[in-house]
Specification:
By secondary structure, this protein is α+β, with helices and mostly antiparallel strands. The protein has two helices and ten strands, in the order αβββββββαβββ.
Amino acid sequence: MEKWFMAAVAGILILSATGCGKSGLPGLVSGKGIVLYDGQPLADANVTFIPAAGSQGMRGASATTDQSGQFTLMTLNPEDGVQPGDYIVTVAKTKRPPKFDEEAGRKFMRGEGPPPPPSSGKIEHEISPKYFSKETSGLKITIGPKGDKNIKLDLSSKP
């Protein structure tokens, strides 16, 4: 029983020393900004910061924009920040197809109405697809050692 007790105490000490649930990544800094598309705030877009070539040991960060196009980057935990360094940024916003109208389907099967419209199942892109890929986005950001709270991603629908 003594060995079990010592192992439990050691486990508790290790968990408390590492923060038990914190990101555990030293040196994370604030990364906040806005995404504009044709000059207008882009809501509900997925923003991904991918470490640039030669950035060994760095992790990517991501965020989803709010209704005003604002975002706060996270690496492992919500809003925990980003590691300083060079990044290629991608932005994606898609529109999910409408769900199949089950009630309309039941009414049609009972002979009480027209058939419901089919769902295409196809996901539509709401912004230019060039921003979805790190190879084509053209968005490069350097996060300094003190972070960046004024990142501005100004996207355009024009090629």
